[in-house]
Design a protein that fits this description.
By secondary structure, the protein is an alpha+beta fold. It is built from three helices and four strands, in the order βαβααββ.
């Protein structure tokens, strides 16, 4: 099972860079037929995690992946699962 990882700690306060990074990793996962993308927005206030989920729930993005799982042991981590 192949996996990609995106850690958003470095760009947490740069709105367009966050969206670009998310878009790039989703596109890469689709093109390379990656099974899982791990996104780490961090724990913080939860605002970045909400931004990530809002991005992933856009209609044109949502149709590219199968589902989102929240890590039950780590609030600051999401898994985007793909079916190819």
């Amino acid at each position: 099972m192949s996996k990609l990882k995106l850690d958003l700690h470095e760009i947490f306060n740069r709105g367009q860079k966050i969206e670009d990074a998310l878009n790039n990793i989703i596109q890469e996962a689709v093109q390379r037929k990656i099974d899982i993308v791990e996104i780490i927005p961090g724990k913080g206030s939860g605002q970045l995690k909400k931004t990530v989920i809002r991005f992933l729930e856009q209609k044109h993005i949502k149709q590219m992946y199968h589902r989102i799982d929240k890590d039950s042991k780590n609030f600051g981590r999401l898994f985007v699962r793909f079916k190819h």
